[in-house]
Amino acid sequence: MDRAEQQGAAAADATATRRQLDIRDHVEPADYQTIGTPFVDDAKMTARNVNVFYGEKQAITNISLDIGRNEVIAMIGPSGCGKSTFLRTLNRMNDIIPICRVEGEFALDGEDIYGGDQDTVLLRARVGMVFQKPNPFPKSIYENVAYGPRIHGLAHNKAEMDEIVEDSLRRASLFNEVKDQLDKPGTGLSGGQQQRLCIARAIAVSPEVILMDEPCSALDPIATARIEELIDELRENYTIAIVTHSMQQAARVSQRTAYFHMGKLIEVGDTKQIFTMPRHELTENYITGRFG
Ligand SMILES: Nc1ncnc2c1ncn2[C@@H]1O[C@H](COP(=O)(O)OP(=O)(O)OP(=O)(O)O)[C@@H](O)[C@H]1O
Ligand SMILES: [Mg+2]
Hints:
A seven-stranded mixed β-sheet has the order 1-11-10-4-9-8-7, sandwiched between helices. It has a four-stranded antiparallel β-sheet with strand order 3-2-5-6, with helices on one face. About 35% of the residues lie in helices and about 25% in strands. α4 (about 140-150) crosses α5, α4 (about 140-150) runs parallel beside α7 (about 190-205) and α5 (about 160-170) packs across α7.
């Protein structure tokens, strides 16, 4: 069945529960083979046979990868290799780029996330995103965090909302710095504080997965260290995929690392192994600074 047929079938049966993908059997031969361990036993998200195009140009070629439950997976590789593009497929952020076309199968806890009945607003609450440049709304600190819970109806009254806001700011280790100025604009905070505010905003809707696209690239080393500590703490409750240009950062925060090269997933494995004993020459060239 192609996707249009699948969507038709899903729509035809309004009472059907969301399609469960039996994904592991679907791996198709590619013109290259990813080295290492793209599949894990306890996958939170699965992506299979992913191809992404911008118009005629292919940005991702036949990538299959699992994101393990409660792991931090780092995605590294030279500029333009498709890291952001791949990350965005995981919560359908590419849908909002008109020329972008995504092929492949994607599941969250085994459920198809590209099915015709998938609500993308809900999906992006379950699979949240933190961007390279902190992007608080032009609203108060409080409202930045309360916005998501409000549109998803997570609080029944002001007291419950106050609790969600405080708890999210605490988990993003920002609360103590802003507790006396919750009504001040979020845009008035420092860059590092703004990024922690964006993380608080992402976790306020209790996501299951957090996608981070170079979350520290605009931050100084102190702010970066705080975000890295935070990532380590968040791992207890969330699954995290982080794109980074910093190999030190990948080594510090992740348990698995995926190396991308020109739209292909070249190698993936245990972070220690990738950085100490890469198996593919391209991975080795990159981590030793001979490329990119
Ligand atoms: N909105 C877009 N329109 C057209 N082409 C795009 C778009 N976004 C990305 N691309 C192309 O897709 C390819 C992969 O880009 P992508 O942004 O995913 O790379 P990246 O690995 O995240 O790079 P960087 O490290 O510089 O952020 C590139 O060739 C890029 O030019
Ligand atoms: Mg990018």
